[in-house]
Amino acid sequence: MKYILVTGGVISGVGKGVIASSFGTLLKSCGLDVTSIKIDPYINIDAGTFSPYEHGEVYVLDDGGEVDLDLGNYERFLDVTLHRDNNITTGKIYQLVIEKERKGEYLGKTVQVVPHITDAIQEWVERVAETPVRGESKPQVCIIELGGTIGDIEGMPFVEAFRQFQFRVKRENFCCAHVSLVPSPSSTGEPKTKPTQSSVRELRGFGLSPDLIVCRSEKPIGSEVKEKISNFCHVAPDQVICIHDLSSIYHVPLLMEQNGVIEFLNERLQLNIQPSKREKCLQKWKDLARRSETLRKTVNIALVGKYTKFKDSYASVIKALQHAALAVGYNLNLNFIDSSLLENETLQDAPSKYHKEWQLLCESDGVLVPGGFGSRGIEGKIKACKWCRENRKPFLGICLGLQAAVIEFARNVLGLEDANTTEINPKTANPLVIDMPEHHTGQMGGTMRLGKRTTIFSEEPSIIKQLYGNPKTVDERHRHRYEVNPKYVPQLEEQGLRFVGCDDTKQRMEVIELRNHPYYVGTQYHPEYLSRPLKPSPPFLGLILASVGRLPNYIARGCRLSPRQQSDASSDEDDLQITAKINNLKLNGGSTFLTPNGISRAGGELFINGTSSVEASDTESGSKPRNGGGV
């Protein structure tokens, strides 16, 4: 097993997660099996009880682990499935050691940071590094990111553990990469290396000598700066890698490859990468980066949420939207709307903010309402749901977004004016959303419905089912304490709000879809967690397609993107031909329709939210699709 430790200096948030992911991407592209570990030195057991304003979103794994968002980067970059133990915290380590002490496993000895805590860290790393993350094959390389910055008091046990670990696994199996900031103050206009020198000196003082120094900067830095860092930090010039701010994170692995990182790691860790494999490295990433630079059209999406002041609160949602937009051939323009500013109280207290947020919402091509907890901003989300429903605006609600859509429908269509969730009003007469039996009100951590669960689709046709490829079931990740009250489902469905997906007990509603609407979909699960750059999540893909007026034609193609569209060439002619076929292919008195599998009779008619493809194309596409072209 080979280990690459990634540390950070000068400031936190310097980009260690992307750098660590890029190391893994480079090695994976060379045919190696790679796993990742993220170390967070805080005392919390996991990230489950954090506010999104603390460290960004809480990322959920298949096994229900609530972890740091950097593990989302690892999964997206490497296309692997990590586990809760791939996220190490000080809380987990101390909990493990204390439990052993209570059981008497230390045989009466004094339990200390060294050796007991440091040994526990090393044993944890070795155990997790051997765990398969892609199929059954054992990983060959483990990338370890140490959170925080060198010198933080809470991270000292981990630094000491890895000082010992480098001798435990031998030099040829351990490599350290230090990520540091090289600022360029506006007063001087030149890069300053002193912070990096100090950071490396401190790291070396703790017994770890970096093999690679990755310099983060706003703009590219010249060879003179690299030479200076090399001289003062005891590394060769080719071991100083400069990564400046780039237009897309997809360019980071490519820039690292250009700087000879693969060759260095191959020699330093004796990886035996064959030259033939190196020549084929990163072709998919190169194509992805090239596509991201050649997009000419833009789709405007409004994200109506509670934590919009900190974009990392919705990191996976943003990535999933970017993946879908890139697949369709559009740049994503994401407008963050604070849901509390859409409420009537804001109209009275700050009318300018109220109208500004509503203008952003009205000018969007599509709307996404993500998850969240608590009462703040919930009425604004409900108002956004109502506006999308009444104005036929493409809409995707996730978790709380689904619940808000159900409450809005109950209030304004069923006439249940006091409809609410018991999270907000436990005494409401019409609890459309209720807490789950496993919800423990006195214990917050790890008591939600977490991890990958199976959703069973109903037999009737639906857009969301077709976007997934018409499977009977789909597995997605969950994170919620509340769910739709099954008592109200018949009333809601009778008025057109269909529940097209549920769990295996048929009691928990998983997916909603509004009849006779271009795209009004809600999911109780979080589809963003399984979105990948080359495999966008179907609900997000549907939102983007509907927002640019191309969803009916995409479904008519059998849920495939046209080659011309994928290359970002204009596909207007193709779109018009498909639309014409849909509109004119009605045979034998209207009993035959164009379906994803060709021409079939009414039994196999293509339906879009309860509307035939002909009707949907008439109402949504007209003679020419909105925003110029189809998929």
TrEMBL record:
Chain's role: Catalyzes the ATP-dependent amination of UTP to CTP with either L-glutamine or ammonia as the source of nitrogen. Constitutes the rate-limiting enzyme in the synthesis of cytosine nucleotides.
Name of the protein described by the UniProt record: CTP synthase
Matching PROSITE patterns: GATASE_TYPE_1 (PS51273)
Catalytic activity annotation: UTP + L-glutamine + ATP + H2O = CTP + L-glutamate + ADP + phosphate + 2 H(+)
An annotated Gene Ontology molecular function: identical protein binding
Listed GO CC annotations: cytoophidium; cytoplasm
HAMAP family, per database record: PyrG
